[in-house]
Amino acid sequence: MISDKMTTALNKQINAELYSAYLYMSMSADALHGGLKGAANWFRVQAQEEMVHAQKFYDYVNTQGARVVLAAIDGPPDKFKSLQNMFEEALKHEQKVTSLIHKLASMAKAEDDHATGNFLQWFVTEQVEEEENARDVLDKIKLAGGPGPGLFMVDNELAARVFVPPPAAGAAAQQA
Prior knowledge:
Radius of gyration: 17 Å
Structural class: mainly alpha
Order of helices and strands: HHHHHH
Low-confidence stretches: 172-176
């Protein structure tokens, strides 16, 4: 059983993950509206990943016998200045989520909540990847130098991204 304080914090994280999905769907819509189908795909895949993250937190809270309480999700911005701006905002957002995950891990450690601490380690590792992915695309967009053939090539590369769900916890343990 997890503490009431931890339950509240994990419920807030469920909301943060759902907001992330909402934000990336908004970015996808704006990219699509701007003719950037590859970027729209990239953000749509990112939104799917965030939904998986929310579901993992949801399942964990329930597994611990605590109550999931869903809160309203704030509306994300719906227009962005450019593709570069979208990825700058995506990187900033992922850095914020990393901070939230680290705070949860610190709370688990302070409460001697080893189960939650162990659960959160997957997210600590995942956030390193999330920031790296956004930073890599942002670097490519900067190298492309604005609208033109370079941006066209980056957009085509982003179109190749596909959603790959993470293995189930039991499957990962069996493979190890």
